[in-house]
Design a protein that fits this description.
This protein has five helices and no strands. It has about 140 residues and is an all-alpha fold. The chain has one domain. It is elongated, with a radius of gyration of 17 Å. It binds protoporphyrin IX containing FE (HEM) (2 copies). One protoporphyrin IX containing FE binds next to helix 1 and helix 2.
């Protein structure tokens, strides 16, 4: 298995565990929802769902279509940006960054852009894998 695909899937499962715990905490303490809701949703959807899809797609699509991704090194860059961005967004949101309007908000936006850049690398790599298969020898 592609080593980065393996890393994406492992991280997806870790985010699922964290997201589920956070969902349970909101269920027990609904008054914490304002801070925790965003983190619960994004750990589950951006962490678990998107990373699981990325990991499986990076492994499967190049094999399905007999064509390598156009930028193999971009998979590691995506992995780093996606994780650093999601963890950074979650931490700054927990600290109130989304509504602070100050430096913390700017830091939140920085992490959001980091995550977005990682996802765009995935879009680029997976989109071009789906072009016509390369001719075999
Ligand atoms: C045992 C596991 C889970 C528990 C206990 C749980 C709990 C909750 C709670 C209490 C809320 C309401 C939050 C609020 O209104 O402040 C919520 C919302 C949400 N959860 Fe979970 N959750 C779980 C798993 C998941 C998973 C696996 C996903 C996605 C893959 C997910 C996605 C969402 C989304 C998208 C919302 C927002 C729904 C909306 O906008 O109304 N949750 N969850
Ligand atoms: C670069 C990536 C992303 C960034 C920067 C981002 C940022 C945000 C922000 C700022 C909000 C508004 C939060 C609020 O009003 O409190 C939001 C809401 C939401 N996002 Fe994302 N998001 C990203 C990716 C995703 C992805 C990939 C999914 C789903 C697969 C997703 C699902 C949602 C949902 C369901 C809500 C509504 C939450 C609610 O009902 O309170 N997001 N996101």
């Amino acid at each position: 298995m592609n080593i980065y695909a393996n890393w994406f899937i492992r991280m997806a499962l870790i985010y699922l565990a964290l997201g589920v715990v956070m969902g349970a905490v909101i269920g027990i303490q609904p008054e914490w929802s304002q801070r925790l809701r965003f983190v619960h949703i994004h750990l589950n959807l951006l962490g678990f769902v998107t990373m699981m899809i990325a990991g499986v797609a990076y492994h499967v699509l190049p094999r399905f279509n007999a064509r390598p991704v156009p930028w193999p090194g971009g998979i590691l860059v995506h992995f780093i940006l996606h994780n650093a961005g999601l963890i950074g967004m979650s931490a700054t949101h927990l600290a109130g960054g989304l509504w602070s309007g100050g430096l913390l908000h700017a830091v939140f936006v920085g992490f959001a852009l980091m995550t977005g850049a990682g996802l765009l690398i995935m879009v680029y790599n997976l989109f071009f894998v789906l072009l016509a298969p390369r001719e075999g020898p």
